[in-house]
Design brief:
Chains A, B: It comes from Drosophila rhopaloa (Fruit fly). Chains A, B: This is Chloride channel protein. Chains A, B: Keywords: CBS domain, Chloride, Ion transport, Membrane, Repeat, Transmembrane, Transmembrane helix, Transport. Chains A, B: It holds the Pfam family Voltage_CLC. The structure is a homodimer. Chain A is mainly alpha-helical. The first copy, chain A, has 27 helices and 14 strands. The first copy, chain A, is elongated. The interface between A and B is large, with 92 and 94 residues.
């Protein structure tokens, strides 16, 4: 229902049919504010599904209609307002136009030209076939077996996600090491060491350019031409999927391959981004791949795990995969579990969460083993990819520092909000002026060149030499410095961003000049802003943390410069708080981010409090201005994400105000021909099944269930008609429907019903007999809660006589 | 509905009424398995609400009726089976007895003589008054203010919970120190130091007895005579409350006071129990007290936070309070948050969880400050009450140890299951043979004497002398030992159980003899089993961890004795794994327990994996035998807790099989007299409101809402009749109903309606117009999910014509 592309013209004649199909477009509801939305929506440009579209949300749709009488007077529960509810057989004064409401299109969603995101079918369809399976399982102790298999899959998800994360990490580390070693050698060869003020940096600069442009161009080309969905961090996509939106191609193996190569090339190319976001996406793909036991990319069906082939099970596995990805990325198993919960869980299912936690812990453990072995460590002390390093001594703080932390938090919120806003503007510009594919690749290259050039300029113009020996940087560069000194600016740039974060946390006080760090902060702020939104696979976590750590440390240094007696100004501590504040300001993820930071930095639980103060201040200040970067991306792409609470505009409304009507219904026993024609003519995905129908006035029947488009197509494909029941009944089970999951064929692949034109379909065995139903006068906050808590796709609105009044889908909750 | 005490005989004449009320008891449903349950249930002994009743669950109710036709043939969704659904006006062949079904009692629940636990009204009643308030709040930006107040309350909860925890902890520590110092002095005076084999232990023994008996008797008497609900750890009660069951008197300030004194006396008295469980209960009381802005104990209404006076808000605050309590007890803020979630959350509400986390962190922070100041520490490194101490160096493990950890887990599961079973048997015995209050006090004293005597015997007969110097015990006793030695047995006993756990984790290898530890394990296992279930306030966490740590360390020592070359056998590590395994085996809490252990011990994230392995093995092995100790307690008390998943017996059933019918209904406009009589005659708590009623055939009307007993009583009390509308309408708001929360008066406090006998009540303004409705053929697992996810109290079952077919409440899901 959410996914109708364009208004379908049903007025074309369908005259060969036995049921004359009459179109009844909803017209002239001028008092309904929804109408305005339709118009606005349809004026918006259609977006590609590349995850990189321009925001077109004007944001001022008038939803609250003040002309409408207030609720109290309007309150007559038993009899719904007839003018609003179509197909109400009990109403006396019915519109003359509605006399034959055989076949309706819910015109609002049909008219909306937003991209065709579908919802997941998270609701289990408990039809007769499902019940049969349940009974069989009761008998065979099948349930226990299924449970054990589920555990095995979760453990596999943890292990494989960690292995993929390790591979990516090791490759990036090796290649970066090669690159920066070569560059340092080149610098040392071309700049005479003794003459610290002169030297030719052109050749190293050109090498640097080359080693940036090549991988970035390759990565951007792969992403752009092969799989555009892999652009960006992948977290918004996974978030949307877990929220219940079907994002096409997001969990394919091809996507994983492109993403892995994309992230390697981008990080090695030196773009301002991290590999953590893509890890989470990788975990999701692994989960979906393993749990389904088949791959569309390789056209291979392993014929295992068949019982898990539905949206409900798949989403649960992807939840575990996302958690395993976060855990691997940050070495934070509890944070991983909470990330998945925060993004996904509407219903707290203890078993699912327990499995998710185990997958997370196994993922961290596997990563520990592999990376410890790789780094030649005896114990498993290597934790996570984003290893911030343990602080030498427990971080301490004094009471009077708490206000300082709060100020840092506020700064983080302001800077983060500005970053989000700037980034959104850049991406809007991009979308508008760079529509061509080749342009997107060139743009990535340009940003890479910009980064290298700025870094080179900084190294060339700033003279920041420090004595060797107390710096943990692997590759000290002597460039322009005396013997026994190294160039602190080059040290910041000649490593991966992640290593720079570590330096900022752990370098001893006085490792950098104030000017160095100030310029570095500004440059990296701009660079990271320009980078996020390029058509490359890159996460936003590391650059954000880096910028925050830089200005946090900077602030401590500046303060210490003016108040040299303030010994509490441990620069590493302030770098950590700054990173937290900046992350809070940009990402606005709250619970899981706090826990991830706590786990990653391994601070004492007494230091949670300063972290939380910084995070909360940053989030609240940032929320005053705009939304988090992930949510902004989701909004820009018009993904119909359900929020946590119903939007405030909906607070006083009733279901009546947001439902879509009229509704296309199907009779419990309906003709195959009607179903075929209907599926061809409209693009809805769920159809109420009605009974007690007089003639063809379907929308006046009593609701007895709901059936999905995909189920109807399977019924037609497999010819499950009443007339030939004896052929298919014995061997038809719920597995017949699962076999075609997840890519059900479209109605076009169903042959035209020639000889079967008069056959009948009896839906009583296939339909979901327990759809969730609400009344037209139920309040929107209440039905929103039901919708979200149960993970629904369709919510039927019925009147007090159990006749359909309308249907509510995800999209009806998200107009702003 | 869940709470009817006895079968009410409505056949007594009510002849003075204008509506003749006819009883229609459900009789002779011999094909309904429910009937068997009723009989069984009513044969069970009634239980007191003291939380300490005997289990009477025979556990073999035949719920799946094989005589019943299978579902497939039975599947006719539109027309429910008439014989089962009463009051179906559409059915032609109605029973002659049902011709006048004016007033029905749902006899099943009425007949069950289980204790009268009510459900919380977690579902928000969105009646017209509520909607009015919502609209006002929209206008006044009230919503933001309410949100800020909510935050303030959560912060207060964190602070006050921590302060209470600190006070209890400090008092216990000081008193214990005094007690054990005195005993040691007494030992040293009475046992000649030079003569290590002789000496008179009788006087110290008598002193010890005195210092045990006095506080234990005092605590037991307080609990028994003043507030019996404070017995035990309080976790089962908080768990039940969070699950949605109204446990009387659980969140009163009086309860908190008795609990605090009770736990101090019991721990100081030396019983085998901890103070952690009671902390959680204390947090819950604090939360309920602060958020309501009034106290029943002190009969004081502060006239603040009036908007939060309903079950929904209160439960959310108690969630935060429980989390703050756990956090304070274990220094584990994330664990605290997860504990509350695991026990309570059915619907994942991001804001609530965020507030809970903040309350937890603030609680830990406050505790840190106070206890650090008390202990004279400069930094805030004191974490939690249950401070296991940090391990000196990161715990390491080798691959081949993983199977050993698993074996430890299995042992923990077996020992835990045995402990639970033994404890249940002891409590059954207690319940049967010690019904008198004074007996319960004496029993506690006897257990205290037993503990002291066993400890003295161990100290007397075991000769385990260790050189002084490398033992972290505060009070080394030289008793029977050479100079420069101390008695290791006395060291184990002469401190609080918590300190003993710390010793077992951190004492260097070779601190005890194998025999010492083996005997200690056995003695403490039995003692803790005898203690849990006494009428004293004590938690089970510490003794369980202590027993586990003891046998874990013992195992490492024994293995090391046979394989002295096995250097990996760090006894502290095995003590930790043993404690985890034993906790997993006894408590069976999974997610939060893992996280609490991880946070409390502060181990590296790589060590999570061994912990999880031990916990999972223990839980799974234990679950094979019985349930966790908290769940056992809950079951024994017949608390109608909702499980996570529907019970397997319910898998193939439909709503029809579990609903209660007939149902007592009220007309939308009904006579005050009818309502008054009905409330007097039956004890249900929710009544469907119907419309389109012919005469008095109420149960044939169309459902348009539901109204609670408490609302009806307020309507009668305040005389909110149609006839005098002009007097009350302007000043009646949702606050009118909240003012009487939480202790609504009973119907007996409503004066007899003399002059108002013909007045009418119009429920359209008061009723909840959006009750959740399901159909009789909906499957039980599905409606269970809806019921749990939405936190419902009543679920209306309606047929396809929107007439009431039955009602489902919490109790209908929990028959086993």
């Amino acid at each position: 229902m959410d996914e109708n592309k364009t208004l379908i013209n049903l007025e074309d004649d369908i005259s060969e049919e036995d049921d004359p199909i009459v179109l009844n477009k909803k017209t002239g509801h001028s008092s309904k504010p929804i109408k305005d939305i339709e118009v606005n929506q349809s004026e918006e440009p259609t977006t590609s599904s590349s995850g990189r579209t321009a925001p077109a949300n004007s944001g001022n749709y008038p939803l609250i209609d003040n002309d409408h009488p207030p609720l109290l007077e309007n309150f007559t529960p038993p009899v719904p307002r007839e003018s609003q509810i179509n197909g109400n057989a009990g109403s006396a004064s019915r519109d003359i136009n509605n006399l034959e409401p055989i076949f309706h299109l819910r015109s609002r969603t049909a008219a909306a030209s937003t991209p065709n995101y579908e919802s997941l079918d998270y609701e289990v369809c408990e039809n007769t076939l499902f019940q049969d399976e349940q009974r069989e399982q009761l008998a065979e102790r099948f349930s226990l077996r299924k449970d054990i298999i589920r555990w095995i899959i979760f453990i596999q998800i943890g292990i494989i996600t960690a292995l993929i994360a390790c591979s990516i990490d090791i490759i990036i580390e090796e290649l970066s090491e090669l690159k920066y070693q070569f560059l340092i050698k080149s610098v040392q060869e071309n700049v005479p060491l003794s003459d610290a003020t002169e030297g030719d940096l052109v050749i190293p600069y050109l090498y640097w350019l080359l080693f940036s442009i090549l991988p970035v161009a390759f990565g951007a080309a792969m992403v752009t031409y092969i799989e555009p969905i892999t652009a960006g961090s992948g977290i918004p996509q996974v978030k949307s999927y877990l929220n219940g939106v079907k994002i096409p191609r997001i969990v394919r193996i091809k996507t994983l391959a492109v993403k892995a190569i994309g992230v390697i090339t981008s990080v090695v190319g030196g773009l301002a981004g991290g590999k953590e976001g893509p890890m989470i996406h990788a975990g999701a793909v692994v989960a979906a791949g393993i749990s389904q036991g088949k791959s569309t990319t390789f056209v291979k069906d392993f014929r295992i795990f068949k019982a898990f082939r539905d949206d409900h099970e798949k989403r649960d596995f992807v939840l575990g995969g996302g958690a395993a990805g976060v855990s691997a990325a940050f070495g934070a198993p509890i944070g991983g579990m909470l990330f998945s919960l925060e993004e996904a869980a509407s219903f707290w299912n203890q078993n699912l969460i327990w499995r998710t936690l185990v997958a997370s812990i196994i993922s961290v453990f596997t990563l520990n083993i592999v990376l410890s072995a790789y780094h030649g460590l005896n114990d498993f002390t290597f934790t996570g990819l984003f290893n911030l390093g343990k602080f030498d001594q427990p971080l301490k703080f004094d009471y009077f520092e708490l206000p300082i932390f709060m100020i840092l938090g506020v700064s983080g919120g302001l800077l983060g909000a500005a970053w989000n806003s700037l980034n959104t503007k850049i991406n809007k510009f991009r979308k508008r002026f760079i529509p061509w594919k080749i342009g997107k690749v060139i743009e990535a290259v340009v940003v890479a060149i910009m980064g290298v050039t700025l870094a080179c300029l900084m190294i060339y113009f700033i003279n920041d030499c420090r004595p060797l020996g107390n710096d943990p940087t692997n590759n000290p560069v002597q460039l322009f410095c005396e013997d026994n000194e190294y160039n602190a600016v080059a040290a910041l740039w000649f490593q991966t961003p992640e290593a720079t974060v570590r330096s900022l946390f752990h370098d001893p006080p006085g490792s950098h000049k104030i000017l160095t760090l100030a310029l570095f902060t500004v440059v990296y702020y701009v660079l990271s802003c320009a980078t996020f939104g390029l058509n490359v696979s890159l996460g936003v976590f590391i650059p954000t943390a880096l910028v925050g750590a830089a200005w946090g440390r900077l602030l401590a240094m500046v303060t210490f410069y003016f108040f040299p007696q303030a010994e509490f100004l441990h620069p590493g501590k302030y770098a950590l708080i700054g990173a937290a504040a900046n992350l809070g300001g940009v990402l606005r993820m709250t619970i899981s981010l706090s826990v991830i930071l706590m786990e990653t930095t391994g601070v004492e639980s007494s230091f949670f409090f300063p972290l939380i103060i910084a995070l909360i201040s940053a989030k609240w200040v940032g929320d005053y201005f705009n939304e988090g970067i992930y949510d902004t991306q989701i909004q820009v792409n018009h993904v119909p994400m359900l929020t946590w609470e119903p939007l405030p505009q909906y607070k006083g409304l009733t279901a009546q105000k947001i439902l879509s009507s009229p509704v296309v219904c199907i009779k419990l026993r309906d003709s195959a021909h009607y179903i075929y024609q209907m599926l061809k003519k409209c693009e809805h995905n769920g159809f109420p099944v009605v009974d007690n129908v007089e003639g063809n006035r379907r929308s006046e029947g009593r609701v007895c269930g709901i059936i999905l488009r995909s189920q109807l197509i399977v019924i037609l494909l497999k010819s499950l008609y009443v007339e030939n029941k004896r052929f298919w009944l014995p061997e038809t089970s719920i597995q017949t429907f699962r076999d075609l999951y997840p890519r059900y064929p479209s109605i076009k692949s169903v042959r035209k019903l020639d000889e079967k034109i008069n056959y009948t379909v009896d839906l009583s065995m296939f339909m979901n007999p327990s759809p969730v139903r609400v009344n037209p006068h139920d309040s929107v906050p209440r039905i929103f809660q039901i919708f979200r808590a149960l993970g629904l796709r369709h919510l039927l609105v019925i009147n007090n006589e159990n006749r359909i009044a309308g249907i509510i889908t995800r999209r009806d909750f998200i107009y702003k």
